[in-house]
Amino acid sequence: MRTTDVLIIGSGVAGVSAALGLARNPNLKIDVITPESDPQESNTRYAQGGIIGRGADDTPELLVEDILKAGAGASLPLAARILAEEGPVDLQKILIETSGVDFDKDANGKIDWGKEAAHSRRRIAHVGDTTGQAIITGMLQALGKCSNVTLVKNLTAVDLITFPHHARDPLANYRPITCHGAYVFDQTTRMVHRYLAGATILATGGLGRIYSNTTNPLRSRGDGLAMAHRAGARIINAEYVQFHPTALSTPGMEGFLISEAVRGEGGILLTPDGNAFMEKYSLEWKDLAPRDVVARAIHHQMETHGYSYVLLDIASHASAEAIQERFPNIYATCLKAGIDITREPIPVVPAAHYFCGGVAVDEWGRSNILNLYAVGEVSCSGLHGANRLASTSLLEGLVWGQRAANNLEIELDKKDREPIPGREDVPPWDESNLTVDADPALIQGDMQTIQTIMWHYVGLIRSAERMSRAIRELRHIQNEIETFYRSTRLSDGLIGLRNAVEAALVVAQAARHNRHSRGCHYRVDSVDGGDRLL
Fold first, then answer.
1. Given 209, 219, 221, 291, the catalytic residue
2. Is the pLDDT of residue 132 over 60?
3. Is 532 a catalytic residue?
4. Number of folded domains in the chain?
């Protein structure tokens, strides 16, 4: 058993931002855990395009307007205002000054602001096309200098410890639901430990891996969402799963993201026979339309004409030197796949990319469960609404990580605060009667079934019939998985499988419940005109 002031589950931009904020108070002890052997391994690492700052001709008002417009009327204005006002300040203070992130500069030594879809101004700070990698590398290096922060690898959270559910005291049943840490599986020793904490911050990222086609890394399977849901946290906007329009469509390279910045720098979408088509779907924005519009347009072209992919052409709109300088990672990766993007177009398809919903939180990252915060993609602050504006995700994690830290520093200092439970208050995890090891073939087979159901029935195009079938089949699989889970020794894969089916059901049920097409939730049987593609 371990006791700490704050337990942070996840080591991406949001979790590390919160840890850096809390570390400023030398009286606090902070533990950051990650299931990865490399703490850099998270969705943050794979963010290519960049992070929003404030360009030369930009204002907070203009950014708020763009966020609300991209969010299709479902973004919370307060959240947009917080991001627009605090984001550039945090970028300068946390990323540039504290973490030493060296964003690309122009000839005058100023940040070279880029542009992406649905942005009215050039305001995207970037480090080539590996911005996320540069950010998380710098932030983790800064975190390593904080003596009151412990970063532990290869630990998978199993479930949140909440009272009254896990309390030995029967009188706890009369008090509000309160989080006191988590049960954590050590992948090395295969033991489950109690991690007791004064406050817990979920920063576990997204759930793209519940779909068969995704840009997300392997452990983006909805772990934090599922744990919070089981604990009784309020989940909102779960139907809004954003599909990135352009993932590389080449054998062996599926899921590799082709950044939206490629279109921001002039790239044009073409049919396989070379015809531009986005003007048919968005006369105003064309290839720079919001992601939901572009993804559905590509899907429609593929479905209508039987294409297995469409093409993204940057070679005809930028010099080879400019392409290699701006997109070195995309250039190198595509070259490995036999595609020279300075000479030929890139075959692309849509893929599940970002979860716009999540654990409902307020402006400080607080959930409806006492002492439980959520930041980053696992949370829903209301910022993204029905469709995330490009390059807001890294900034949201940065801003709400800092906000959660600021609020927690005040909360943890209150004299009437309930103390952290002791060893005798929380039962240990008991696997004494379990002797069977998890069969990887069963785990992989069930995971593939979940992914296939979600892709075909709760994907880019939805209907009541598709979603009802998805829910029926997912419930059956969930029952099988739960039986498997209750009779088998834990593994990271089994924990993830259980979470994946829970997260999939949360998304499918929310999607069936919402009968209106909005943003990235599109229904052909919408009550407000679902026969429209866009």
1. 291
2. yes
3. no
4. 3
